[in-house]
Amino acid sequence: MKWLLALCAAFAITAAAADISGNWKATAEGPNGAMERTFTFKVDGNKVTGESTSSMMGKSAISDGKIEGDTVSFVLTGKFGDQEVKLNYKGKISGNEIKFSSEIAGGDGGGQAIQWTAKKM
Q1: N or C: more exposed end of the chain, with fewer CB within 10 A?
Q2: Euclidean distance between CA atoms 92 and 14, whole angstroms
Q3: Domain map of the chain by residue range?
Q4: What string of DSSP letters covers 16-27?
């Protein structure tokens, strides 16, 4: 019985560690220099929603988001000029930091991913 309680406690700690609800600030080195983006995540179970803001694309909605263990993935949809752009994000959660990789969804981005580091604000 004790091992079962210990296992449940360990699982609860692991599940809590993946709660990324709140505001995050991310930075990346892009082709034209440093970039910044903020994220506001809302988590319901393993579903992730919210929005993101950047100087390049303005506000973007977070859709198709999910958390599996310490991995988070979602799609951002925003405007780049007069075109709608979808970006696929996938990240690894480690405490108050997330290491993301993002690339244009189904596009001809040449497969070049941008590496982001986000920190909880």
Answers
A1: N
A2: 14
A3: 2-120
A4: HHT---EEEEEE
Q: What is the pLDDT of residues 19-40, one digit of tens each?
A: 899 999 999 997 788 999 999 9
Query: For residue 28, which of 120, 113, 121 has the smallest C-alpha distance?
Result: 113
Q: Which residues sit opposite 119 in a β-bridge?
A: 25, 97
Q: Which two tokens stand for residue 59?
A: 């506000």
Q: Distance between CA 68 and CA 90 in Å, rounded?
A: 11
- Tally DSSP H helices, then E strands, for the chain: 1, 8
- pTM recorded for the entire structure: 0.80
What is the torsional sign of CA 116, 54, 74, 82? negative
